[in-house]
Amino acid sequence: MPRGVVYDLLVIGGGINGAGIARDAAGRGLSTLLVERGDLAGATSSSSSKLIHGGLRYLEQYEFKLVHEALAEREILLRIAGHLVWPARFVMPHVPELRPRWMIRIGLFLYDHLARRSLLEGSHAVRLDRPPYASGLKPEFRHGFIYSDCRVDDARLVVANAVDARERGARVLTRTECRSAKRETSAWRVRLSNGEDIEAKAIVNAAGPWVKQVLNERLGQPSHDLVRLVRGSHILVPKLYDGDHAFILQNDDRRVVFMIPYGDWHTLVGTTDVSQHEAESAQPSFAEVDYLCRAVSRYLAKPVAPHDVVWRYAGVRPLYDDGTNNPSAVTRDYTLRVDDDAGATPVLSVFGGKITTYRHLAEDVMERLQPYFPALKGRWTGQSSFPGSDFGADSRRAARDAFFARYPQVPTATLRAIFRRHGMRADQVAGDGKLGEDFGAGLSEREVRYFVDHEWAHDADDILWRRTKCGLHMTQAQRQRVAQVLGR
């Protein structure tokens, strides 16, 4: 294999962990290459519950460290990713036979105080038999509790990390696979699917559900660590209730199910915990769809049936296998494994993790790599806003209103969608206000071109289901038109 360009770090995997690690590494001065065999956020990282949350239910599993870290990250992401992460209030109807009121109060007290909270409201009891929280519920649910968490555009958070990594010097290659890698004295020699041969002083294996496969087959490294694949399925149904609040619903199997407003016309319901054998074929089963419908119908005045579902998706959580039989009880914390062959050319593999704690995970990865890069700079990602979230002295609302005022000729719905996706970079998308062809659902020719030129979009699915969710609101003919334009 001929020698090629030498990088400090090769990151394999363009999900949230890989993109976050590449961003952190580039900002610390490492020459970094990120490779992703498909699209950024093409698997688990675009198939989440779209939440940045502490994980209230993990308190029952005594995962206090995980909850503390997640709650702290929630505050950080609200500050640095303000155009992609926003506050939400969650209502929990009280069901005495499932959990007593004292237990919920203690849990919410811990949730409010396990980490410093300055941007979000605290929890308290609420009445459910009067506005605003009575909408859609059966009348027998009279009491409940409300607390704060956050929602996120998961796929766009991945793209934002990759964009920032690139602007700090990293190279990002999508549709590019690590075919093989061989450890030598001072570097890994790596062959990529695009024909390039490169060298890397260290490798981070952040391939998610494929982490074990990459480690064993592409890097030639034996490992006793096991990955537990757990499928989390979601359904989207027509709007179930009025209001911006979400619901967290206790189920009789001790799990919880979320009902979350999704745009103006839909409600997102999830999630399940089901063992998954193959990472390649994650699809919600009929049993999971039925489970989610039954779980929410227990609370709703008008029940939901599988035929009401307008969209369904599933993501595979690559959890570290701790031997637990129950998929819901497998830890959501992450494990980092370093193999350095007697002190040189390390490969670090990421097992597990969740979108909420990805930034903290990336910092831990850098700390583990510090001995191999003595000149590595210190932590920085907790204070630096993402491209698009640098609002400065203005609030997000003030910045949005100013953007609207600059384009009076563009429909407000289109401007709202552009700003929600791009934040302070919305002007780069809108340009002179001549947006070209309107594909529907607020998606314009100019924004499609921006996705291709600046955000690694390649085909219609990249744009309609990851860079945006416009595909949900388009006709088949409109979706085909986008595919046609991209193919051209």
Ranges where pLDDT stays below 50 over 5 or more residues in a row are none
Question: Might you state the CATH topology name of the domain at 6-44 and 156-226 and 331-372?
Answer: FAD/NAD(P)-binding domain
Rg, rounded, reads 23 Å
Strand % is 15-25%
Globally, the shape reads globular
What's the CATH architecture name of the domain at 6-44 and 156-226 and 331-372? Answer: 3-Layer(bba) Sandwich
The number of E-state strands comes to 20
- Helix fraction, binned, reads 25-40%
By CATH reckoning, the class of the domain at 6-44 and 156-226 and 331-372 would read Alpha Beta
Largest sheet: 10 strands, mixed
Helical region count?
Answer: 13
Q: Please tell me the overall pLDDT.
A: 93
CATH level 4 superfamily of the domain at 6-44 and 156-226 and 331-372: FAD/NAD(P)-binding domain
Q: What class, by secondary structure content?
A: alpha+beta
State the end-to-end CA separation. 36 Å
Write a brief caption for the model.
This protein has helices at 16-27, 64-80, 101-113, 154-167, 211-218, 286-297, 358-369, 396-406, 412-422, 426-430, 445-454, 460-467, 476-487, and strands spanning 6-12, 32-36, 51-52, 85-93, 124-127, 143-152, 171-174, 178-183, 188-192, 197-205, 227-238, 246-250, 256-262, 266-270, 274-275, 311-320, 334-339, 347-352, 438-440, 443-444. With 488 residues, it is of the alpha+beta class.
